[in-house]
């Protein structure tokens, strides 16, 4: 390979101090993820909802909000403000004090899910903990007003969150066009929880600090590639390069985190990172070891796009 291909960074993982992490579930999607226990290993969870009956089913910290008020609060804050501007932000900041990272999960397009996520990311910035937002875009069938609202919420998250991973609900329908819509929502909850679980299990305190410093502010997409035959490294990269989820065709990514499951020596992981850089033009590649497999290789790529 040419010598000018960037050297990937192998993250430290379990060899360092574990990050103290919180989970915020915002709106219906985020609260359902908390109720279903989809995310593991976090220190504690906080639910944000506008529905009292939902709160009754949740046994974690919770903040009941008015949907119209949460939109007003989220849209009235001045960019870069370092103090809480409303009661919800103040309460969240108090709960997140001394936390290394907060994972904020919710669905864009409604009132509480998207705007609650914005307030949670704002609270994280106030107490200087890393904010990792994992959010879904509305299904196309959900209507124009939800998509317009989702776009506005996304722009606010871009101004606030350290890392924002956006997963399109329509991708679920593209993969399984005959799936009932209620089942598609349940599948999406599992998909949203996946990157949070990978990061919680395989990134330590210093890893999160490094990613916040080096790639904070980027927007990410995610996909998974598997291969159980020869030339696994090249074949995995080729699959990821052509992924509809990652949308790398015709544009160069800014950064990528590759979670690797399978037996790879250190030199093999370096080869994986360099091959990904060479084939996609990605200048920053971080690799996290995410466990062994009986055979084959599995890579979950979280890539800025």
What gyration radius follows from the Cα positions, in whole Å?
19 Å
For this structure, what is the CATH class of the largest domain?
Alpha Beta
**So how many helices?**
11
Give the count of structural domains: 2
- At the third CATH level, what is the topology name of the largest domain? Rossmann fold
Q: Kindly report how far apart the N and C termini lie.
A: 25 Å
What's the architecture of the largest domain in CATH terms? 3-Layer(aba) Sandwich
Q: Which class do the helix and strand fractions yield?
A: alpha/beta
Average predicted local confidence, pLDDT: 91
Which outline best applies?
Answer: globular
Share of helical residues: 40-55%
Strand order of the largest sheet: 1-10-9-11-8-7-6-5-2-3-4
The fourth-level CATH homologous superfamily of the largest domain is Tubulin/FtsZ, GTPase domain
| Main sheet overview | 11 strands, mixed
């Amino acid at each position: 390979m040419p010598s000018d291909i960037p050297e990937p960074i192998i993250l430290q993982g379990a060899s360092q101090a574990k990050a103290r992490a919180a989970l915020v579930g915002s709106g219906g999607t985020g609260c359902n993820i908390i109720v279903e226990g989809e995310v593991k290993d976090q220190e504690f969870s906080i639910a944000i909802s506008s529905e009292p009956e939902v709160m009754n089913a949740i046994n974690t910290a919770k903040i009941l909000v008015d949907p119209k008020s949460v939109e007003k609060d989220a849209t009235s804050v001045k960019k870069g403000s370092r103090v809480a501007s409303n009661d919800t932000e103040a309460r969240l900041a108090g709960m997140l004090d001394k936390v290394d990272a907060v994972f904020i999960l919710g669905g864009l397009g409604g009132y509480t899910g998207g705007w609650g996520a914005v307030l949670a990311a704002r609270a994280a910035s106030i107490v200087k903990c890393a904010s990792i937002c994992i959010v879904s875009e509305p299904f196309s069938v959900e209507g124009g007003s939800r998509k317009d609202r989702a776009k506005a919420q996304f722009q606010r998250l871009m101004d606030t969150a350290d890392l924002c991973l956006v997963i399109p609900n329509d991708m679920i329908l593209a993969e399984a066009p005959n799936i009932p819509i209620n089942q598609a929502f349940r599948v999406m909850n599992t998909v949203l929880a996946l990157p949070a679980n990978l990061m919680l299990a395989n990134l330590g305190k210093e890893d999160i600090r490094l990613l916040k410093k080096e790639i904070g502010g980027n927007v990410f997409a995610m996909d998974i590639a598997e291969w159980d035959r020869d030339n696994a490294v090249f074949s995995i990269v080729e699959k990821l390069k052509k992924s509809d989820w990652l949308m790398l065709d015709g544009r160069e990514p800014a950064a990528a985190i590759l979670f690797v499951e399978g037996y790879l020596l250190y030199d093999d992981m370096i080869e994986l990172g360099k091959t990904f850089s060479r084939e996609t033009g990605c200048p920053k590649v971080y690799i996290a070891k995410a466990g062994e497999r009986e055979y084959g290789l599995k890579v979950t790529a979280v890539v800025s796009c």
